[in-house]
Please model this.
Amino acid sequence: ITHLSKLEKRPVRDILVEKASAPPPPGHPVDTFRRENEALRAQAASLRSALATLAPEDADEEAPVDAAHHLVCRRLFSGLMDVEKHYQRKENLLFSFLERHGITGPSTVMWGKDDEVRARLKELGTALAESEGSVGEWRLVAQTVAEPGLAAVEEMVFKEERILLPMALQNLTETEWGE
Model:
């Protein structure tokens, strides 16, 4: 019982253990999803870094942001929006195949979480559409709008790789993967 009480206090992400298995071959849908997730993680990290450069901690709060750095942030954000294609494939293809096997829980929860990510990224896109602003204002945008959106993208990547994709590999047939 003592052992169980320690587990209950740990976050789910710390308890999950991915079963060791041979990685899917290149071109397999799971390989594609994982490669996209790697790209999304890298894009989120790059945008986080660019926002820190746009509004550095040691800069004067009232100083205007550098237009070139702002453009870099917008370009990186645009690349991050490829998450939409990834989510659409996941929702419209992978979820429907899992549902054929009676697996609906992860699909329902993840679809809702995907919509939350979309909403957060839309807010960030709206903010980045503004080219004016001081370092202090952009620092606030980075903390209150960008960071929650980027963290949500990264958390969904984690859930896909630790829950959804292993579940799909265990339940879908080769024929279904071919479809």
